[in-house]
């Protein structure tokens, strides 16, 4: 029998830290779990006696001063919602020195001492420059469905998108089986094949085409042919949008030309992959990383992304998170192939 | 306190009917609930002491004699599955007199006395010709996601597809709201706007474009403009694939040209709309219509589709089900527009 | 090619009606789709140039004056949410003349001319008395998962609860099949068996026990025995909470005593049945009935529930909606039994 | 650009291993993903040129010789199904020396050289004894929703059960919020609080009560009181079934007695937690562990559970997997409490 579950850390443990007011924004493509992260950032900051300011529309709102004080109740009942209550937007102005200067003045005017940014590599690239220019403490929370950030095992939104893909492919398989068709299904992932590869394994697909590997049309053809010869009557191939051989439509028409006997179909899953209520994993991850971001700031960290590696919180310099490449687990490729025989 | 819930109709009530062996097939595009219908046909026929033969691959399998005896246990645990365990296929051969003659001989050889076909208007067109040519009793169960069959309030599969669409649009709305975008979402419906119109109301979309009505681009533009002026920041327009103004991509690019200030996106939902576990409504409908199809045959009916109108079973001649046009409820258009202000 | 889909009814068509300000509340047990109904009431009233006031906590809030002006934007993004943004509560005070007097004064003070109440029979009973006492126009929207209101084919929330039940039973069947168990699953329905009966058909259950019929334990036992003798290895029985033979636990223990060889389990689905994102059907129904409620008031109706019968809007006096009994479709009992052989 | 994604490991790499025929069974409580594991075991064994035998009903079927040869096609289209196609059962006979002797003879008669068992600690306890007694190679795949096996970060079925819980609590929260109630929700976990604790964080619950920690009713009461004083109007407490203070009903009635002003409700989620289509994570985990189990056998391992730690395959002696205690992440308790302020 160990310590009491209801005991709590001391709310005043960071009373000597000079950061009193913390802003939070979301930027870049939205991802399920961003709201859970906003909730965690807000509530843990309030827990430690800090004030929280929500910035709407990402960096654009930082320039246009779309600020709003956030109380605990303002983040009630959002843990289960997709999208982001703080909205997201692109900002060309923030790419200029003048834009960032204006943003900085706005933060100063409101006595904001630090910033949490939730987003992907574009978001962190902006954060890194801003932090350097104005010596301003920023911590990032990885929020992107692509899971392509180095230094964290998972990004917020990835698990939800993966499940959305798998559920969609399950539905398509009903039709593929009934009509004995060959389906090419395009999923998100411009530079990274995490969604396609893991989605392919989980959905029991016959093959995946991902940006990390050269797509050899000949091998794909042999593979499909063999399957058909072995009496496999329907097949599903997941194609990452950034695949080198072109998108699902282009690959499908190549196959169709060569094998007119196959009944080929294409579905591009599109924007459904970005939305929806976050999975349990994404909500827990968002909760942990949101708390970790506030603790990192109060622990005097800056220009780092908080991440999770081997179930432990880690701090990864923005520079590394952006520039290093995170690679797909090659063991999974073998698993996929063995299981699709 | 009324009759006992556990009492049953007499299994021998049709003992004088000469139909002893009944075949069942699915044909055309698959729809969720087809398996529940196969189960209902099979079990109610067995209940009334009949033998059941499953025909695989629709009319093609009738020609190729892909027959299999179906027992009650063969349709266990399929009520919840999308697709069709009997598969579906197109058959050019069945469009010829020779093909149909061959199919008829196969039925005779196996002593099959009657047939239940589950599908849409293509299926019933084939059934009607075959029934006339060989004076063979056939009853149809309406199974198509499009809900475009005259004489039945609902077709098996429609409610599931509608819910799939609404759940997908809910997800896309998360993104549309976060980024304040204008989305055009294309849904199935080559000739009928049931999915787009009802999906549009249920998803809270701003407008729908359906084949039944002329799409006036000017009005659509005015409408979107007004919304934006009234501070509506994201909009969703559902486009039936058979809309007269072209698909979602074509309409979106027209709008984009005229209004470069809008952030326009397109998603084509595609084949996910056909699959998935059927909703409660679709399963109940499939169950009722499957039983009704067997009762109709045993009641000496032929060349009819069984349907549901005002919660009652009806028999609709194939000829009427195919040729008469079922119209969308115009009242719903008003509801949609009022609710999107 | 018919009238343009984007044309609209005249917003000033009710300009001569003296009702200018309309309040809306939800009361009784919450049901999925109540928010969609609030949205429809609010927006259609605004469309016709009326002001809308939301009353929080049902009749209690009417007494405590928890009023708030509702704009179109206040009901954005709620169509997909379960529960009710206007909250619900029981009010003993409203059962007294004094309480209702106070409520009436509050409405007068705010110049509220009419009221829409969304709820079940308890809600309409209160509305009927209030309307008579103060000659105040009230229209009701049927919102309850039980579907037990006379005069409407469906109530808002019923279809969602039905699907929640079916999805839960699907999950339990995975376990029942794996372990070859006999499951008794209790679902909501104190006086009405709609959920149990329709849920039972849709989930492919072996039997249902509902309040409308005497449960003959002997027949149930024979039935289960027969199933087992025919090699049915797992069975699922749905029990409405109001079943005359007692709840699921009580029935299960009777069976267990008699048949120790069965591996019996019980699950009481409980409050999960009330929540969740409404289905497409429930959202469309809520939309149509919300608009119809406003039109009824502007058409000078009072003390009626708006309902849907045979896909048409109907007006049912509160008195009839409450007192007449809506009966389950007995044909469905036959369907259930035939399909569980 | 790295190696070709479509290249494969050599199917004959284990040609010198004497294990030619491998049996697989599932035992104990079923868990979502067991079918995906059966598929992976079967296909990877076939890939490496081995024969596969499915044993029905766990150890009971090993004694009763419920054996069946499994081909690749026999595990098609099961990756998405809950439950287990090989069924599960308890066997008292297997707890006796005679029973196990009989089982061993059956394996020998069929020339089965090795066994994969999918289940939890009960399953592995039986496997360990059997393996020792007959010097028979057995490898285990952790399949249990409780996640309570030492030596693996996750067990197959846990992620699905967690998501089922979170979706159920989301629905209940709709009602809790609408009526401003205090809900106690009981989830599975006789000895382990993984589901309750992680479910509580993901669902945004106010507190969790788990077996690993003493439940101090005083602190719980203070906590709830404080919440109410801070104007929190509805609360959700997750209770693991094995909590020391008793189940949800018992705790709820204590609270109700002390605080009659709270509107308290209880829901016991029950068997829905065991079923359902597995999540992406559970399918991928099942796929990896199924392959790993076959590779372990062919690599001459025995009496080990294959697990996943830090995203790598590990081999854990049965003895350790069963006897060592896996502890919940205490950091998560802090996160839960901070986020529920």
UniProtKB/TrEMBL annotation, chains A, B, C, D:
Gene Ontology CC terms, in alphabetical order: 6-phosphofructokinase complex
Biochemical pathway: Carbohydrate degradation; glycolysis; D-glyceraldehyde 3-phosphate and glycerone phosphate from D-glucose: step 3/4
Coiled-coil stretches noted in the UniProt entry, renumbered to this chain: none
Keywords of this entry: Allosteric enzyme, ATP-binding, Cytoplasm, Glycolysis, Kinase, Magnesium, Metal-binding, Nucleotide-binding, Transferase
Annotated positions binding ATP: 29, 90-91, 120-123
Pfam families referenced in this protein's UniProt entry, alphabetically: PFK
Location of the Phosphofructokinase domain: 21-297
Active site: 146
Top-level class of the enzyme under EC nomenclature: transferase
Gene Ontology biological process terms in this record: canonical glycolysis; fructose 1,6-bisphosphate metabolic process; fructose 6-phosphate metabolic process
Mechanisms controlling activity: Allosterically activated by ADP and other diphosphonucleosides, and allosterically inhibited by phosphoenolpyruvate.
Binding site for substrate: 144-146, 181, 188-190, 241, 265, 271-274
Domain of life: Bacteria
KW Magnesium (keyword) present: yes
Binding site residues for Mg(2+): 121
Cellular compartments annotated: Cytoplasm
Major place of residence: cytoplasm
Subunit: Homotetramer.
Annotated function: Catalyzes the phosphorylation of D-fructose 6-phosphate to fructose 1,6-bisphosphate by ATP, the first committing step of glycolysis.
Family the UniProt entry places it in: Belongs to the phosphofructokinase type A (PFKA) family. ATP-dependent PFK group I subfamily. Prokaryotic clade 'B1' sub-subfamily.
PANTHER family documented for this protein: ATP-DEPENDENT 6-PHOSPHOFRUCTOKINASE, PHOSPHOFRUCTOKINASE
Protein name, per record: ATP-dependent 6-phosphofructokinase
